[in-house]
């Protein structure tokens, strides 16, 4: 079928907290998981102000670079205690937090390897279509050969996709607009 | 020998049915959308997979927003049901739907909602369910009210229910709103009208359905949701010599 329309995206609005927030939302893995860390950050608007009504969601491979998913051509691999998905609302200062473990590298299918990364979605009041970005890790040599990172010529733009190491984990700020605007993807 | 990393498919890009990122008529949009063009991200393993969340997220009363309180909520009881399909018409089975909405007076149970309509002690306005093998879902709830907001002079949101869906891949994730047929507020609502294609706009409007109306109890509305469809196997020719 060539028909390609889908139900349109609409804003999450300001009042999603009851509907979308789960008590265990920020935990891609349970507290106490070996290698677990907090990925924290804040969402900022074009005026540099924090966005207090955003939802940030992350999705990732497990530490072996596997997914518990039937469309992974290498086969689905379940890892006990690993959900791979996390969801956090921002607080009045625009901050979100996600507890997870570092994913493994991934084969691209054409001989290249993607460095460890999280796919990240951002929703908020004022945003009609979700934004998508990726969070990479600063301590990964594989970043130098990652096909997504290396496709972005401007070093400052590329740097927006790499989290910073902080005590207890990493920090990944998201700038929706402006001088430090995060690279967002069309997928 | 099949290539163990060759993806079974990708998902079609679907921009024409969606609003533009930049839509000045929606006031709070101005500072919250990127000004640089989006970078094309090839769909690979992370994008063609996604969280397969289902029954474990759903509690006993979650598909009935009128239940779980001491008494019945105020307002017109309705049943909203339909199917979740992909762009190829295939049912999306076992996927989590989350909904949230205002009460009959147009007020959300949220600290930030300043609309001076009463809160309803018997209505929280939050539901969850999972599609069955044919992609079907159903919620029992009450008809939400319209409410004012400050986007422009005398601005009111048409009555709507927020829907969140995961589908089976990160690319299929969708948050949208379901509207009610014949709403006189459509013409002045920038969120509804941010969708430029009239057919796509109408696809956000449920239809009244006497067939799912329950006698002496609840009115029925039908609303189908379409997530992205699949592209066939990419890179087929390039890998043929392996």
Automatic annotation (TrEMBL), chain A:
Residues 13-178 form the Intradiol ring-cleavage dioxygenases domain. Its EC number is 1.13.11.3. One of its GO terms (molecular function) is protocatechuate 3,4-dioxygenase activity. Keywords: Dioxygenase, Oxidoreductase. It comes from the Bacteria. SUPFAM superfamilies: Aromatic compound dioxygenase. It holds the Pfam family Dioxygenase_C. The keyword Cell membrane does not apply. InterPro entries: Intradiol_dOase_C (IPR000627), Intradiol_dOase_core (IPR015889), Intradiol_RC_Dioxygenase (IPR050770), Protocat_dOase_a (IPR012786). It is an enzyme of class 1 (oxidoreductase). Belongs to the intradiol ring-cleavage dioxygenase family. This is Protocatechuate 3,4-dioxygenase alpha subunit.
TrEMBL record, chain B:
The keyword Manganese does not apply. Pfam families: Dioxygenase_C, PCDO_beta_N. One of its GO terms (molecular function) is protocatechuate 3,4-dioxygenase activity. It is an enzyme of class 1 (oxidoreductase). It comes from the Bacteria. Belongs to the intradiol ring-cleavage dioxygenase family. This is Protocatechuate 3,4-dioxygenase beta subunit.
């Amino acid at each position: 079928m060539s028909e390609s329309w889908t139900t349109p995206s609409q804003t999450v609005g300001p009042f999603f907290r009851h509907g979308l927030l789960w008590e265990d939302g920020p935990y891609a893995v349970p507290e106490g998981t070996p290698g677990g860390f907090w990925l924290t950050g804040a969402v900022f608007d074009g005026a540099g102000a924090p966005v207090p009504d955003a939802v940030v969601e992350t999705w990732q491979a497990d530490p072996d670079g596997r997914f518990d998913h039937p469309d992974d051509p290498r086969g689905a691999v379940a890892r006990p205690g690993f959900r791979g998905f996390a969801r956090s609302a921002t607080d009045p200062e625009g901050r979100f937090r996600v507890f997870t473990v570092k994913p493994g590298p991934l084969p691209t299918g054409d001989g290249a390897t993607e460095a460890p990364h999280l796919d990240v979605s951002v929703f908020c009041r004022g945003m009609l279509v979700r934004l998508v970005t990726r969070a990479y890790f600063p301590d990964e040599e594989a970043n130098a050969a990652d096909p997504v990172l290396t496709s972005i010529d401007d070093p400052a733009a590329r740097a927006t996709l790499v989290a910073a190491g902080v005590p207890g984990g990493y920090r990944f700020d998201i700038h929706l607009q402006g001088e430090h605007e995060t690279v967002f993807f069309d997928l | 020998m099949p290539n163990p990393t060759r993806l079974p498919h990708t998902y079609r890009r679907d921009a024409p049915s969606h609003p533009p990122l930049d839509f000045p008529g929606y006031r709070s949009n101005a500072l919250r959308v990127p000004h640089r063009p989006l970078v094309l991200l090839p769909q690979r393993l992370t994008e063609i997979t996604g969280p397969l969340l289902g029954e474990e997220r759903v509690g006993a009363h979650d598909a009935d927003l009128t239940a779980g309180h001491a008494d019945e909520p105020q307002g017109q009881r309705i049943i909203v049901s339909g199917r979740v399909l992909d762009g190829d018409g295939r049912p999306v089975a076992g996927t989590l739907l989350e909904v949230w909405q205002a009460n009959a007076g147009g007020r959300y149970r949220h600290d930030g909602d300043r609309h001076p309509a009463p809160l309803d002690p018997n209505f929280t306005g939050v539901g969850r369910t999972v599609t069955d093998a044919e992609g079907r879902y159903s919620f029992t709830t009450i008809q939400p009210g319209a409410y004012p907001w400050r986007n422009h002079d005398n601005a009111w949101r048409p009555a709507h229910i927020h829907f969140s869906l995961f589908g089976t891949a990160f690319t299929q994730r969708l948050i949208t709103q379901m509207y009610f047929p014949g709403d006189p507020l459509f013409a002045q609502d920038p969120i509804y009208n941010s969708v430029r294609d009239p057919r796509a706009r109408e696809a956000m409007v449920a239809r009244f359905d006497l067939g799912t109306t329950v006698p002496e109890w609840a009115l029925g509305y039908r609303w189908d949701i379409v997530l992205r469809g699949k592209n066939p196997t990419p890179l087929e020719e390039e890998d043929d010599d392996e």
